[in-house]
Input
Amino acid sequence: MSKPLRTVVFPVAGFGTRFLPATKTVPKEMLPVVDTPLIHYAVEEARQAGMERFVFITGRGKGAMENYFDHAFELERVLREGAKDDALRQLEGALLEPGAAFFTRQQQALGLGHAVACAGPLIDDEPFAVILPDDLVLSKTPCLKQMVDVYNKYGGNIVAVMDVPREHTDRYGILDIASEDGPLVGVKGLVEKPAPDEAPSTLSIIGRYILQPEIFRMLEEQEQGAGGEIQLTDAIARTIGRIPFHGLRFEGQRFDCGNKAGYVKANVAFALQRDDLRDDVLAFLKENIG
Ligand code: G1P
Output
């Protein structure tokens, strides 16, 4: 393997219209699951997978994210003076060092492939990871770390995958499966958002990718695909056969926080993981179910 895998890209320019009115002024990536913004989970997952450079593809109105990963001096001083050590420690988790974080704007909403292409000049000739913060994964080993472990063995392009109900294939990138070896899936093709009766399988890409820099060349000449957008899936599909490609059935539970039900479920599931909330929330659920 040539260049190190150390950069992660977060495409975070979307308007989040499904979460209006909240997203009128709050970036959807700043919506909290329990008490932590979605983008914080994404950064933490990337860190735990060994990423050192964090590229945010943002847009107008997304400034809160840049502030979030910086010091908040007044707040920190008040907490220090009040000896609120726990709160201070939590803030430390939301810091990115100067030189580790890069914010660039997508400028035009032309699709996920276009968003990733915007990171090209900041990455140049190295492999990189992509995390879509909407897709939140609850797992023992962070999802991207599971993928890095596979990457260290096989290299190439890797996506995290899971089965979805057939009626939902038109929401995802879907794999045309060539072979299966435990959690690893060999792939002969990819289709973005196929209709249920046309989908080659029900195995769908969730928002985790490890990609070789060749993808930038593919994206440069990528034509519009599903929904009239430049699709990342289509560009990856064109590398199959030339660059090793694997789907990984990751261990863990994935929540689609890009829709309301998924977001509420994530809040419940993450609250149940917390010692300070579990009993209370569980009692409430028991009382109110059935
Ligand atoms: C994007 C990708 C799709 C992938 C999905 C995962 O779609 O284009 O291939 O399956 O993320 O969440 P979007 O949700 O942006 O429509």
About this structure: The chain has a mean pLDDT of 95. The chain has eleven helices and 13 strands. The longest strand covers residues 173-181. The two ends are 55 Å apart (CA to CA).
